[in-house]
Amino acid sequence: MSTAKDLSRIERAYMRSDQRRYHVPCPICGVLSPILWLNIEWTEGQLEQAALRCESCQALIPGHYKTSMHVRGVWVAQAEGDGVAAGYHLSALFSPLGWYAWGEMARDFLNAKHEGPEKIKTWINTCLGETREESGEVVKQDILFARREHYPAVVPLPVLVLTAGVDVQDDRLEVEACGWRTGEESWGISYRALWGDPAASPVWRQFDDLLASTREREDGLNIRIVQCCIDSSGHRTEAAHRYVKSWQVRGVYATIGRA
Ligand SMILES: [Zn+2]
Fold it and tell me: CA separation (Å) from 118 to 1, 3, 129?
């Protein structure tokens, strides 16, 4: 196991190299991509079924596909580098079938998150093979996501209504649900990325399903999102406007822009 210091030394060398990452083909659509932590999904209480979401076709890929994906993978350079050093990066997400499963990683992640920032840092170092201050976009996304609450959380009892804030990106919707009680006290309930280009309708249908779904409050009462705010500034603005219009017809209040 590498220490943070070892890792940062390795990292410096890696940053000078051509920064290769292993890309594996999706068993459904065949598109090559690296396995990223932000694309690992699971349901609470069913960690052993943690699976990989394909960013291209949205298929949920179970861990037993690992072997066939790994043997057909390729190393892809992410940088020009110094023209001398070839650098290879592989995280624990690529552990062979029967070794360190995605579900075990998720369990360790949840435990680390429970124990605090230092443990999360260690988890990022050892499982993702990254240091926290890493500058690469891929890593930043992983780290951001590692800090997020994984969906779903039980809604605490004082919550009376749920709202959703939606950030529209070119390739996804990021949906954050909040619970509110009187006096404007709020709780973060869940965060979820819905993958797909918001210019097309499939990702909005996923969002429809999410809005239509209910969350169980601690006392067993099911409550749902009653209001949403969609921030589309700069990304897929027209599509977001169309969607908001359709919701207004259905009597749900929505806004464009930051609240
Ligand atoms: Zn796919």
Answer: 16, 13, 15
2 compared with 231, residue with greater pLDDT: 231
Residues in contact with 150: Cβ distance below 8 Å, sequence separation at least 6, in sequence order: 42, 44, 106, 110, 191
Are the C-beta atoms of 240 and 230 separated by less than 8 Å?
yes
- The per-residue pLDDT for range 32-48, each reduced to its tens digit, is 999 988 888 888 788 89
Taking each helix axis as running N to C, give the angle between helix 137-147 and helix 102-115, from 0 to 180 degrees, rounded to the nearest 10.
60
Instruction: Answer whether 36's CB lies under 8 Å from 104's CB.
Output: no
What domains are defined for the chain?
4-147 (no CATH), 161-256 (3.30.420.40)
Lowest mean per-residue pLDDT among 5-19, 99-113, 209-223: 5-19
Share of the chain above pLDDT 90, in %: 12
Using the mean position of ligand 1's atoms as its centre, give its distance from the Cα of residue 116 in Å: 34
Angle between helices 237-249 and 202-212 (to 10 degrees): 40
Q: How far is the CA of 32 from the centre of ligand 1 (A)?
A: 8
41 alpha carbon – ligand 1 mean position (Å): 15
Residue 55 Cα to ligand 1 midpoint, Å, equals 7
Name the nearest CA neighbour of 138 among 39, 54, 6. 39
- Nearest residue to 89 via CA among 103, 81, 78: 78
> How far is ligand 1, taken at its centre, from the CA of residue 193, in Å?
16
CA of 60 to the centre of ligand 1 (A): 8
Bridge partner residues of 61 (DSSP): 52
Instruction: Read off the pTM.
Output: 0.51
When mean pLDDT is compared over 3-17, 118-132, 187-201, 228-242, the highest value belongs to 187-201
